[in-house]
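Self-study notes.
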Amino acid sequence: MAREFNGTSTDFITQGGAASTVLTASTASVSIWAKMAGSARSVAAVYSGDILWGDVSFFLGLFRADVGGSDRIWAYNWDGNEDRVGATYTTGVWTHFGWMHSGGNLSIYKDGELVSSVASGDTTNIGSAIHIGGKNAVENTWFEGALAEYAIWDVALTTAEWAMLGKAYSPLFVRPGSLTRYSPFVGRANPEPEYIQGQGGTATGTTTIRHPRVIYPTRRRAVHAEAMAGGIVVPRAMAQYRQRRSA
Protein backbone atom coordinates (compact mmCIF):
# COMPACT_ATOMS: atom_id res chain seq x y z
CA MET A 1 0.00 0.00 0.00
CA ALA A 2 0.98 3.68 -0.43
CA ARG A 3 -0.05 6.81 1.47
CA GLU A 4 -2.94 8.89 0.10
CA PHE A 5 -3.37 12.57 1.00
CA ASN A 6 -6.67 14.45 0.80
CA GLY A 7 -5.36 17.92 -0.02
CA THR A 8 -6.15 19.48 3.36
CA SER A 9 -4.28 20.28 6.57
CA THR A 10 -5.41 16.97 8.09
CA ASP A 11 -3.08 14.88 5.89
CA PHE A 12 0.74 15.08 5.87
CA ILE A 13 3.88 13.26 7.02
CA THR A 14 6.64 14.81 9.15
CA GLN A 15 10.14 13.32 9.38
CA GLY A 16 12.73 14.08 12.03
CA GLY A 17 16.10 15.63 11.34
CA ALA A 18 16.97 18.75 9.36
CA ALA A 19 17.44 18.64 5.61
CA SER A 20 21.15 19.19 6.28
CA THR A 21 21.38 15.64 7.68
CA VAL A 22 20.48 14.11 4.29
CA LEU A 23 21.73 16.55 1.65
CA THR A 24 24.05 19.49 1.11
CA ALA A 25 23.31 23.00 -0.08
CA SER A 26 24.88 22.21 -3.45
CA THR A 27 24.16 18.54 -4.10
CA ALA A 28 21.30 16.07 -3.69
CA SER A 29 19.03 13.70 -5.60
CA VAL A 30 15.45 12.94 -4.54
CA SER A 31 13.19 10.25 -5.96
CA ILE A 32 9.46 9.79 -5.39
CA TRP A 33 6.44 8.13 -7.01
CA ALA A 34 3.28 10.25 -7.19
CA LYS A 35 -0.31 9.79 -8.30
CA MET A 36 -2.08 13.14 -8.52
CA ALA A 37 -5.77 13.70 -7.77
CA GLY A 38 -7.95 16.81 -7.92
CA SER A 39 -6.51 19.87 -9.60
CA ALA A 40 -3.49 22.10 -9.12
CA ARG A 41 -3.88 25.50 -7.49
CA SER A 42 -3.04 28.63 -9.46
CA VAL A 43 -0.23 30.44 -7.64
CA ALA A 44 2.34 33.13 -8.34
CA ALA A 45 5.28 31.21 -6.85
CA VAL A 46 5.98 27.47 -6.90
CA TYR A 47 6.54 27.31 -3.14
CA SER A 48 2.90 28.32 -2.67
CA GLY A 49 1.80 25.19 -4.54
CA ASP A 50 1.02 21.71 -3.20
CA ILE A 51 4.07 19.99 -1.79
CA LEU A 52 5.12 16.43 -2.59
CA TRP A 53 8.25 16.78 -0.43
CA GLY A 54 10.23 19.74 0.83
CA ASP A 55 11.56 21.61 3.82
CA VAL A 56 9.15 23.51 6.07
CA SER A 57 10.91 26.84 5.47
CA PHE A 58 10.26 26.98 1.71
CA PHE A 59 13.84 26.64 0.46
CA LEU A 60 13.63 23.48 -1.67
CA GLY A 61 11.28 20.72 -2.75
CA LEU A 62 9.00 19.23 -5.35
CA PHE A 63 5.64 20.97 -5.82
CA ARG A 64 2.47 20.67 -7.86
CA ALA A 65 1.25 24.07 -9.07
CA ASP A 66 -0.24 26.04 -11.92
CA VAL A 67 2.08 29.00 -12.42
CA GLY A 68 1.04 31.42 -15.13
CA GLY A 69 -1.07 28.75 -16.83
CA SER A 70 1.65 26.08 -16.69
CA ASP A 71 0.28 23.16 -14.64
CA ARG A 72 3.35 21.13 -13.68
CA ILE A 73 5.22 19.18 -11.09
CA TRP A 74 7.99 21.64 -10.26
CA ALA A 75 11.49 21.06 -8.95
CA TYR A 76 12.21 24.12 -6.82
CA ASN A 77 15.27 25.62 -5.10
CA TRP A 78 15.81 28.99 -3.43
CA ASP A 79 19.33 30.38 -3.84
CA GLY A 80 18.29 33.98 -3.14
CA ASN A 81 15.79 33.75 -5.97
CA GLU A 82 13.13 31.25 -6.95
CA ASP A 83 14.61 28.70 -9.36
CA ARG A 84 12.14 26.23 -10.84
CA VAL A 85 11.85 23.70 -13.64
CA GLY A 86 8.73 21.68 -14.40
CA ALA A 87 7.39 18.45 -15.88
CA THR A 88 3.88 17.67 -17.10
CA TYR A 89 1.80 14.94 -15.49
CA THR A 90 -1.42 12.98 -15.91
CA THR A 91 -3.91 12.91 -13.04
CA GLY A 92 -4.66 9.44 -11.68
CA VAL A 93 -1.50 7.80 -13.07
CA TRP A 94 1.47 6.68 -10.96
CA THR A 95 4.49 8.62 -12.22
CA HIS A 96 8.10 8.68 -11.08
CA PHE A 97 9.67 12.10 -10.47
CA GLY A 98 13.26 13.00 -9.69
CA TRP A 99 14.65 16.23 -8.24
CA MET A 100 18.38 16.84 -8.58
CA HIS A 101 20.59 19.75 -7.57
CA SER A 102 24.20 19.47 -8.68
CA GLY A 103 26.93 21.46 -10.36
CA GLY A 104 25.00 24.71 -10.13
CA ASN A 105 21.96 23.24 -11.87
CA LEU A 106 18.48 22.16 -10.77
CA SER A 107 16.95 19.31 -12.80
CA ILE A 108 13.67 17.44 -12.94
CA TYR A 109 13.26 13.86 -14.16
CA LYS A 110 10.06 12.10 -15.15
CA ASP A 111 9.83 8.30 -15.43
CA GLY A 112 13.61 8.09 -15.48
CA GLU A 113 14.28 10.68 -18.17
CA LEU A 114 15.63 14.21 -17.84
CA VAL A 115 12.92 16.74 -18.68
CA SER A 116 14.80 19.98 -18.19
CA SER A 117 17.39 21.84 -16.11
CA VAL A 118 17.91 25.42 -14.95
CA ALA A 119 20.86 27.20 -13.36
CA SER A 120 20.57 27.25 -9.55
CA GLY A 121 23.12 28.06 -6.86
CA ASP A 122 23.47 26.70 -3.34
CA THR A 123 20.28 26.39 -1.34
CA THR A 124 20.11 29.35 1.04
CA ASN A 125 19.05 27.35 4.11
CA ILE A 126 18.92 23.59 4.73
CA GLY A 127 18.37 23.71 8.47
CA SER A 128 14.65 22.91 8.56
CA ALA A 129 12.80 19.61 8.80
CA ILE A 130 11.24 17.88 5.80
CA HIS A 131 7.51 17.35 5.30
CA ILE A 132 5.82 15.07 2.77
CA GLY A 133 2.37 15.82 1.35
CA GLY A 134 1.94 19.10 3.23
CA LYS A 135 3.92 21.91 4.77
CA ASN A 136 2.02 24.49 6.78
CA ALA A 137 -1.20 26.49 6.90
CA VAL A 138 0.49 29.79 6.00
CA GLU A 139 0.85 28.82 2.34
CA ASN A 140 -1.85 26.09 2.42
CA THR A 141 0.52 23.71 0.62
CA TRP A 142 -1.44 20.47 1.01
CA PHE A 143 -1.03 17.77 -1.62
CA GLU A 144 -3.97 15.80 -3.04
CA GLY A 145 -3.06 12.36 -4.32
CA ALA A 146 -0.80 9.45 -3.33
CA LEU A 147 2.94 9.19 -2.68
CA ALA A 148 5.34 6.25 -2.39
CA GLU A 149 9.01 5.22 -2.53
CA TYR A 150 10.54 8.45 -1.24
CA ALA A 151 14.35 8.50 -1.22
CA ILE A 152 17.24 10.97 -0.93
CA TRP A 153 20.91 10.64 -1.92
CA ASP A 154 23.61 13.16 -1.02
CA VAL A 155 25.16 12.83 -4.49
CA ALA A 156 24.16 13.49 -8.09
CA LEU A 157 22.74 10.35 -9.69
CA THR A 158 23.75 9.35 -13.20
CA THR A 159 21.54 9.11 -16.27
CA ALA A 160 21.60 5.32 -15.97
CA GLU A 161 20.60 5.44 -12.30
CA TRP A 162 17.64 7.73 -12.97
CA ALA A 163 16.58 5.41 -15.78
CA MET A 164 16.68 2.49 -13.37
CA LEU A 165 14.45 4.30 -10.87
CA GLY A 166 12.05 5.21 -13.67
CA LYS A 167 11.76 1.51 -14.51
CA ALA A 168 10.43 0.93 -10.98
CA TYR A 169 13.56 -0.46 -9.35
CA SER A 170 13.69 0.22 -5.62
CA PRO A 171 16.03 3.02 -4.48
CA LEU A 172 17.90 0.29 -2.57
CA PHE A 173 19.42 -0.81 -5.89
CA VAL A 174 20.84 2.65 -6.61
CA ARG A 175 24.07 3.90 -4.97
CA PRO A 176 23.17 2.48 -1.53
CA GLY A 177 26.33 3.90 0.04
CA SER A 178 25.09 7.42 -0.72
CA LEU A 179 21.42 6.80 0.11
CA THR A 180 20.60 9.00 3.11
CA ARG A 181 16.84 8.50 3.43
CA TYR A 182 14.38 5.87 2.22
CA SER A 183 10.70 5.47 3.09
CA PRO A 184 8.55 3.25 0.86
CA PHE A 185 5.33 4.48 2.56
CA VAL A 186 3.57 1.12 2.69
CA GLY A 187 0.98 2.36 5.18
CA ARG A 188 1.33 -0.51 7.65
CA ALA A 189 2.82 1.45 10.56
CA ASN A 190 2.88 4.92 12.03
CA PRO A 191 5.48 6.35 12.15
CA GLU A 192 6.27 5.19 8.62
CA PRO A 193 9.63 3.35 8.72
CA GLU A 194 12.69 5.09 7.31
CA TYR A 195 15.41 2.53 6.63
CA ILE A 196 18.65 4.53 6.40
CA GLN A 197 18.82 6.92 9.36
CA GLY A 198 15.84 5.60 11.28
CA GLN A 199 13.99 8.93 10.94
CA GLY A 200 10.47 7.54 10.81
CA GLY A 201 7.75 9.71 9.31
CA THR A 202 4.81 10.53 11.57
CA ALA A 203 1.65 10.39 9.47
CA THR A 204 -1.14 12.78 10.36
CA GLY A 205 -4.35 11.63 8.72
CA THR A 206 -3.81 9.98 5.30
CA THR A 207 -5.31 6.73 4.07
CA THR A 208 -3.81 3.82 2.15
CA ILE A 209 -4.01 3.10 -1.55
CA ARG A 210 -2.59 0.41 -3.81
CA HIS A 211 1.17 0.81 -4.06
CA PRO A 212 2.82 1.31 -7.46
CA ARG A 213 4.60 -1.71 -8.87
CA VAL A 214 8.18 -1.65 -7.57
CA ILE A 215 11.00 -4.18 -7.98
CA TYR A 216 12.54 -4.83 -4.56
CA PRO A 217 15.88 -6.54 -3.87
CA THR A 218 15.87 -10.32 -3.63
CA ARG A 219 18.84 -12.65 -3.83
CA ARG A 220 17.72 -13.84 -7.26
CA ARG A 221 17.54 -10.29 -8.66
CA ALA A 222 20.67 -8.97 -6.97
CA VAL A 223 23.29 -9.96 -9.55
CA HIS A 224 21.26 -8.73 -12.54
CA ALA A 225 20.37 -5.43 -10.88
CA GLU A 226 23.93 -4.84 -9.72
CA ALA A 227 25.16 -5.17 -13.29
CA MET A 228 22.49 -2.74 -14.55
CA ALA A 229 23.46 -0.17 -11.94
CA GLY A 230 27.15 -0.29 -12.76
CA GLY A 231 28.37 -2.38 -9.86
CA ILE A 232 26.48 -1.08 -6.83
CA VAL A 233 26.58 -3.30 -3.77
CA VAL A 234 22.98 -4.53 -3.69
CA PRO A 235 23.45 -7.37 -1.16
CA ARG A 236 24.62 -4.90 1.51
CA ALA A 237 21.59 -2.69 0.91
CA MET A 238 19.28 -5.72 1.08
CA ALA A 239 20.72 -6.81 4.41
CA GLN A 240 20.38 -3.32 5.88
CA TYR A 241 16.81 -2.98 4.64
CA ARG A 242 15.72 -6.37 5.95
CA GLN A 243 17.41 -5.86 9.31
CA ARG A 244 15.65 -2.56 9.92
CA ARG A 245 12.34 -3.86 8.56
CA SER A 246 12.34 -6.74 11.00
CA ALA A 247 13.38 -4.58 13.98
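Second protein, same conventions, sequence then structure:
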Amino acid sequence: MHVRATFWFENHGPAAKVTMAFPDETSQNQFQSNEPQSNRHIIDNMMSAVDGKHVTLSHQTVTGDKAFEVKGVWLKTVSFTRGQTRKVVVDYSAANGFAGSGYVLNSYILRTGSTWRGPIGKCSINVDWTKIKKFSRPALTFSKYFDRGPGPHYRVWRFGHRRASCVLNNLEPDFDLNLGMIDRFWGFTLNGKPVPSWVGISDFDEPVKGPRSDIQIPFWMTRGFFGQGNSMENERGKGGELRNLRLIDRSTVEFNGRRHKLRRTATGPIPPFSEQNSMGEDPTYIHLRDIVKACRGTYRYDPFTELVHITIPPQKRLSRITARPTERRRHKAR
Protein backbone atom coordinates (compact mmCIF):
# COMPACT_ATOMS: atom_id res chain seq x y z
CA MET A 1 0.00 0.00 0.00
CA HIS A 2 1.35 3.44 -0.95
CA VAL A 3 0.15 6.56 0.87
CA ARG A 4 0.79 10.24 0.16
CA ALA A 5 -0.75 12.72 2.58
CA THR A 6 -0.60 16.51 2.19
CA PHE A 7 -1.36 18.89 5.08
CA TRP A 8 -1.59 22.67 5.32
CA PHE A 9 -0.89 23.91 8.86
CA GLU A 10 -1.44 27.52 9.91
CA ASN A 11 0.21 29.03 12.96
CA HIS A 12 -2.25 31.14 14.96
CA GLY A 13 0.29 32.17 17.61
CA PRO A 14 3.84 33.52 17.93
CA ALA A 15 6.86 31.93 16.27
CA ALA A 16 7.35 28.35 17.47
CA LYS A 17 9.01 24.99 16.84
CA VAL A 18 6.53 22.13 16.75
CA THR A 19 7.21 18.39 17.02
CA MET A 20 4.88 16.57 14.65
CA ALA A 21 4.09 12.86 15.11
CA PHE A 22 2.75 10.52 12.44
CA PRO A 23 1.25 7.23 13.78
CA ASP A 24 2.60 3.83 12.77
CA GLU A 25 1.03 0.37 13.15
CA THR A 26 -2.54 0.37 14.35
CA SER A 27 -4.14 -2.50 16.25
CA GLN A 28 -5.34 -4.00 12.94
CA ASN A 29 -1.70 -4.48 11.92
CA GLN A 30 -0.11 -5.59 15.17
CA PHE A 31 -0.02 -9.30 14.33
CA GLN A 32 1.58 -8.79 10.93
CA SER A 33 5.15 -9.14 12.18
CA ASN A 34 6.91 -11.63 14.45
CA GLU A 35 9.68 -9.17 15.28
CA PRO A 36 10.06 -7.81 18.83
CA GLN A 37 7.79 -4.86 19.45
CA SER A 38 10.74 -2.48 19.81
CA ASN A 39 11.89 -3.29 16.25
CA ARG A 40 8.50 -3.48 14.60
CA HIS A 41 6.88 -0.92 12.35
CA ILE A 42 4.58 -1.32 9.38
CA ILE A 43 5.56 1.83 7.49
CA ASP A 44 8.51 1.51 5.07
CA ASN A 45 10.29 4.08 2.91
CA MET A 46 8.99 6.88 5.07
CA MET A 47 9.76 10.41 3.89
CA SER A 48 8.44 13.86 4.65
CA ALA A 49 8.89 17.33 3.18
CA VAL A 50 7.99 20.81 4.42
CA ASP A 51 7.36 23.40 1.72
CA GLY A 52 9.09 21.11 -0.77
CA LYS A 53 12.23 20.46 1.31
CA HIS A 54 12.92 17.03 2.80
CA VAL A 55 13.18 16.87 6.58
CA THR A 56 14.80 14.36 8.96
CA LEU A 57 12.53 11.79 10.63
CA SER A 58 13.01 9.55 13.66
CA HIS A 59 10.93 6.55 14.79
CA GLN A 60 9.85 6.17 18.41
CA THR A 61 8.09 3.20 20.01
CA VAL A 62 4.97 3.97 22.03
CA THR A 63 4.51 2.06 25.29
CA GLY A 64 2.00 1.99 28.10
CA ASP A 65 -1.74 2.47 27.73
CA LYS A 66 -1.45 4.03 24.27
CA ALA A 67 0.51 1.08 22.86
CA PHE A 68 -2.68 -0.82 22.03
CA GLU A 69 -3.82 1.97 19.72
CA VAL A 70 -0.51 2.97 18.12
CA LYS A 71 2.73 0.98 18.30
CA GLY A 72 5.01 3.80 17.21
CA VAL A 73 5.28 7.31 15.76
CA TRP A 74 7.47 9.06 13.20
CA LEU A 75 8.70 12.40 14.55
CA LYS A 76 9.94 15.62 12.92
CA THR A 77 10.42 19.22 13.99
CA VAL A 78 8.79 22.03 12.01
CA SER A 79 9.40 25.74 12.64
CA PHE A 80 6.70 28.38 12.18
CA THR A 81 6.89 32.14 12.15
CA ARG A 82 3.92 34.15 13.43
CA GLY A 83 0.88 33.55 11.19
CA GLN A 84 2.82 31.29 8.82
CA THR A 85 1.12 28.51 6.79
CA ARG A 86 3.31 25.55 5.83
CA LYS A 87 2.73 22.65 3.48
CA VAL A 88 3.71 19.29 4.99
CA VAL A 89 3.87 16.14 2.85
CA VAL A 90 4.18 12.58 4.17
CA ASP A 91 4.91 9.77 1.72
CA TYR A 92 5.36 6.08 2.58
CA SER A 93 4.60 2.47 1.72
CA ALA A 94 3.20 -0.05 4.20
CA ALA A 95 2.56 -3.77 4.43
CA ASN A 96 -1.03 -4.94 4.27
CA GLY A 97 -2.64 -5.34 7.66
CA PHE A 98 -3.40 -8.98 8.43
CA ALA A 99 -6.98 -9.66 9.53
CA GLY A 100 -7.52 -13.37 8.82
CA SER A 101 -7.09 -15.96 6.14
CA GLY A 102 -7.67 -14.43 2.70
CA TYR A 103 -8.50 -11.03 4.21
CA VAL A 104 -6.53 -7.82 4.71
CA LEU A 105 -7.55 -4.64 6.49
CA ASN A 106 -5.59 -1.47 5.81
CA SER A 107 -6.27 1.56 7.96
CA TYR A 108 -5.47 5.26 7.81
CA ILE A 109 -5.70 6.99 11.17
CA LEU A 110 -7.82 10.15 11.02
CA ARG A 111 -8.76 10.55 14.68
CA THR A 112 -5.42 12.15 15.64
CA GLY A 113 -6.55 15.17 13.59
CA SER A 114 -9.00 15.98 16.37
CA THR A 115 -6.06 17.11 18.54
CA TRP A 116 -5.27 19.99 16.18
CA ARG A 117 -6.49 23.52 16.79
CA GLY A 118 -10.15 23.71 15.70
CA PRO A 119 -11.84 21.62 13.02
CA ILE A 120 -10.16 20.57 9.78
CA GLY A 121 -11.63 22.87 7.14
CA LYS A 122 -11.48 20.36 4.29
CA CYS A 123 -10.35 16.75 4.16
CA SER A 124 -10.07 15.17 0.69
CA ILE A 125 -9.47 11.41 0.44
CA ASN A 126 -8.58 9.63 -2.80
CA VAL A 127 -8.20 5.86 -3.08
CA ASP A 128 -6.71 4.26 -6.20
CA TRP A 129 -6.54 0.47 -6.61
CA THR A 130 -5.78 0.34 -10.36
CA LYS A 131 -2.52 -1.54 -9.71
CA ILE A 132 -4.01 -4.05 -7.28
CA LYS A 133 -4.96 -7.21 -9.15
CA LYS A 134 -4.91 -9.90 -6.47
CA PHE A 135 -7.46 -8.48 -4.05
CA SER A 136 -11.05 -7.36 -4.43
CA ARG A 137 -12.34 -3.82 -4.71
CA PRO A 138 -11.85 -2.36 -1.20
CA ALA A 139 -14.76 -1.94 1.16
CA LEU A 140 -14.29 1.65 2.34
CA THR A 141 -15.67 2.31 5.81
CA PHE A 142 -15.21 4.91 8.50
CA SER A 143 -15.27 3.40 11.97
CA LYS A 144 -14.61 4.64 15.46
CA TYR A 145 -11.81 2.98 17.38
CA PHE A 146 -12.58 -0.19 19.31
CA ASP A 147 -16.25 -0.50 18.33
CA ARG A 148 -17.28 2.92 19.57
CA GLY A 149 -19.75 3.30 16.75
CA PRO A 150 -19.77 4.10 13.03
CA GLY A 151 -18.25 7.11 11.32
CA PRO A 152 -19.67 9.00 8.32
CA HIS A 153 -22.10 7.19 6.04
CA TYR A 154 -20.63 5.25 3.13
CA ARG A 155 -22.61 7.37 0.64
CA VAL A 156 -20.05 10.17 0.98
CA TRP A 157 -17.89 8.26 -1.53
CA ARG A 158 -17.83 8.94 -5.28
CA PHE A 159 -16.62 6.02 -7.38
CA GLY A 160 -14.86 5.93 -10.73
CA HIS A 161 -13.09 3.09 -12.52
CA ARG A 162 -10.97 1.47 -9.77
CA ARG A 163 -10.90 4.75 -7.90
CA ALA A 164 -12.93 6.40 -5.14
CA SER A 165 -12.91 9.83 -3.51
CA CYS A 166 -14.73 11.79 -0.86
CA VAL A 167 -14.60 15.23 0.77
CA LEU A 168 -15.34 15.83 4.45
CA ASN A 169 -15.74 19.43 5.65
CA ASN A 170 -15.32 21.06 9.08
CA LEU A 171 -14.02 17.79 10.44
CA GLU A 172 -13.05 16.88 14.02
CA PRO A 173 -12.60 13.15 13.44
CA ASP A 174 -13.14 10.52 16.12
CA PHE A 175 -12.91 7.75 13.52
CA ASP A 176 -10.47 6.16 11.07
CA LEU A 177 -10.64 4.98 7.47
CA ASN A 178 -10.60 1.21 6.94
CA LEU A 179 -10.02 -0.47 3.59
CA GLY A 180 -11.05 -4.12 3.75
CA MET A 181 -10.15 -6.43 0.87
CA ILE A 182 -10.35 -10.16 0.32
CA ASP A 183 -8.39 -12.48 -1.91
CA ARG A 184 -10.60 -12.66 -5.04
CA PHE A 185 -13.52 -10.54 -6.19
CA TRP A 186 -16.03 -9.20 -3.65
CA GLY A 187 -18.10 -6.20 -4.68
CA PHE A 188 -21.86 -6.50 -4.13
CA THR A 189 -24.74 -4.22 -3.24
CA LEU A 190 -28.07 -5.54 -2.01
CA ASN A 191 -31.04 -3.20 -2.36
CA GLY A 192 -28.65 -0.28 -2.70
CA LYS A 193 -26.47 -1.10 0.32
CA PRO A 194 -23.04 -2.77 0.28
CA VAL A 195 -22.68 -6.39 1.34
CA PRO A 196 -19.77 -6.26 3.83
CA SER A 197 -16.63 -8.01 2.66
CA TRP A 198 -16.33 -10.12 5.81
CA VAL A 199 -19.38 -12.09 4.66
CA GLY A 200 -17.12 -13.63 1.99
CA ILE A 201 -14.32 -14.78 4.28
CA SER A 202 -13.50 -18.45 4.65
CA ASP A 203 -10.50 -20.44 5.84
CA PHE A 204 -11.13 -23.24 3.37
CA ASP A 205 -12.95 -22.33 0.16
CA GLU A 206 -12.81 -19.61 -2.48
CA PRO A 207 -15.17 -16.68 -1.81
CA VAL A 208 -16.50 -16.77 -5.37
CA LYS A 209 -16.13 -18.66 -8.63
CA GLY A 210 -16.93 -17.87 -12.24
CA PRO A 211 -17.30 -14.58 -14.15
CA ARG A 212 -18.55 -11.54 -12.26
CA SER A 213 -21.60 -11.39 -14.50
CA ASP A 214 -22.65 -14.81 -13.17
CA ILE A 215 -20.91 -15.43 -9.82
CA GLN A 216 -21.07 -18.67 -7.83
CA ILE A 217 -20.70 -18.53 -4.03
CA PRO A 218 -20.53 -21.26 -1.36
CA PHE A 219 -24.05 -21.97 -0.15
CA TRP A 220 -23.07 -21.47 3.50
CA MET A 221 -22.37 -17.79 2.70
CA THR A 222 -25.93 -17.11 1.54
CA ARG A 223 -27.22 -16.72 5.11
CA GLY A 224 -24.90 -13.79 5.82
CA PHE A 225 -25.13 -12.44 2.27
CA PHE A 226 -28.89 -11.89 2.46
CA GLY A 227 -28.73 -10.32 5.91
CA GLN A 228 -29.78 -13.12 8.23
CA GLY A 229 -27.82 -13.69 11.39
CA ASN A 230 -25.52 -10.64 11.33
CA SER A 231 -25.49 -6.95 12.24
CA MET A 232 -26.53 -5.92 8.71
CA GLU A 233 -29.87 -7.72 9.00
CA ASN A 234 -31.93 -4.71 10.03
CA GLU A 235 -30.12 -2.31 7.70
CA ARG A 236 -30.90 -4.18 4.48
CA GLY A 237 -34.65 -3.85 4.76
CA LYS A 238 -37.45 -6.28 4.08
CA GLY A 239 -36.23 -7.10 0.59
CA GLY A 240 -32.99 -8.57 1.93
CA GLU A 241 -34.48 -11.07 4.34
CA LEU A 242 -34.55 -14.66 3.11
CA ARG A 243 -35.46 -16.63 6.22
CA ASN A 244 -34.47 -20.24 6.82
CA LEU A 245 -32.57 -20.44 3.56
CA ARG A 246 -31.64 -24.06 2.83
CA LEU A 247 -30.78 -26.32 -0.05
CA ILE A 248 -33.27 -29.17 -0.49
CA ASP A 249 -31.39 -30.84 -3.35
CA ARG A 250 -29.08 -29.73 -6.16
CA SER A 251 -31.87 -27.92 -8.02
CA THR A 252 -34.25 -26.82 -5.22
CA VAL A 253 -33.84 -24.10 -2.62
CA GLU A 254 -36.22 -23.15 0.20
CA PHE A 255 -36.61 -19.82 1.98
CA ASN A 256 -39.44 -18.08 3.84
CA GLY A 257 -41.33 -21.39 3.87
CA ARG A 258 -41.46 -21.75 0.07
CA ARG A 259 -39.52 -23.99 -2.31
CA HIS A 260 -38.10 -22.72 -5.60
CA LYS A 261 -36.52 -24.51 -8.54
CA LEU A 262 -33.10 -23.28 -9.59
CA ARG A 263 -32.19 -22.75 -13.24
CA ARG A 264 -28.92 -24.61 -12.75
CA THR A 265 -27.86 -27.30 -10.34
CA ALA A 266 -25.54 -26.70 -7.41
CA THR A 267 -22.08 -28.26 -7.48
CA GLY A 268 -20.35 -30.13 -4.70
CA PRO A 269 -21.77 -32.28 -1.89
CA ILE A 270 -25.13 -31.39 -0.33
CA PRO A 271 -24.61 -31.26 3.46
CA PRO A 272 -27.38 -32.00 5.99
CA PHE A 273 -29.64 -29.07 6.86
CA SER A 274 -27.92 -28.66 10.24
CA GLU A 275 -24.55 -28.08 8.53
CA GLN A 276 -25.57 -25.91 5.58
CA ASN A 277 -24.79 -22.64 7.37
CA SER A 278 -21.29 -23.73 8.43
CA MET A 279 -18.15 -23.37 6.36
CA GLY A 280 -16.42 -26.57 5.37
CA GLU A 281 -13.46 -27.87 3.43
CA ASP A 282 -15.62 -29.07 0.52
CA PRO A 283 -18.43 -26.52 0.07
CA THR A 284 -21.49 -26.55 -2.17
CA TYR A 285 -21.41 -23.77 -4.79
CA ILE A 286 -24.57 -22.18 -6.13
CA HIS A 287 -25.16 -19.52 -8.79
CA LEU A 288 -26.06 -16.32 -6.96
CA ARG A 289 -28.10 -15.10 -9.92
CA ASP A 290 -30.38 -18.16 -9.64
CA ILE A 291 -31.31 -17.39 -6.02
CA VAL A 292 -31.95 -13.75 -6.95
CA LYS A 293 -34.20 -14.83 -9.85
CA ALA A 294 -36.07 -17.18 -7.51
CA CYS A 295 -36.85 -14.08 -5.41
CA ARG A 296 -38.03 -12.24 -8.56
CA GLY A 297 -35.12 -9.89 -8.10
CA THR A 298 -32.51 -8.44 -10.45
CA TYR A 299 -28.78 -9.15 -10.80
CA ARG A 300 -26.63 -6.66 -12.76
CA TYR A 301 -22.85 -6.40 -13.06
CA ASP A 302 -21.37 -2.96 -13.79
CA PRO A 303 -17.84 -3.39 -15.26
CA PHE A 304 -17.04 0.32 -14.76
CA THR A 305 -17.53 0.33 -10.99
CA GLU A 306 -16.79 -3.41 -10.67
CA LEU A 307 -19.93 -3.98 -8.64
CA VAL A 308 -22.71 -6.53 -8.81
CA HIS A 309 -25.98 -4.74 -8.03
CA ILE A 310 -28.71 -6.99 -6.62
CA THR A 311 -32.26 -5.91 -5.85
CA ILE A 312 -34.82 -8.13 -4.13
CA PRO A 313 -38.46 -7.10 -3.60
CA PRO A 314 -40.11 -7.66 -0.19
CA GLN A 315 -40.63 -11.36 0.40
CA LYS A 316 -43.81 -12.95 1.72
CA ARG A 317 -43.55 -15.64 4.35
CA LEU A 318 -45.86 -18.59 4.81
CA SER A 319 -47.54 -18.60 8.19
CA ARG A 320 -47.66 -21.80 10.19
CA ILE A 321 -50.62 -24.07 9.34
CA THR A 322 -52.47 -25.15 12.45
CA ALA A 323 -54.82 -28.13 12.67
CA ARG A 324 -58.55 -27.52 12.75
CA PRO A 325 -60.40 -28.25 16.03
CA THR A 326 -62.11 -31.32 14.53
CA GLU A 327 -58.75 -32.72 13.40
CA ARG A 328 -57.29 -32.20 16.88
CA ARG A 329 -60.21 -34.10 18.47
CA ARG A 330 -59.80 -36.99 16.07
CA HIS A 331 -56.08 -37.15 16.78
CA LYS A 332 -56.71 -37.13 20.54
CA ALA A 333 -59.31 -39.91 20.27
CA ARG A 334 -56.90 -42.35 18.58
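Instructor comment on the second fold: Residues 97-183 form one domain.
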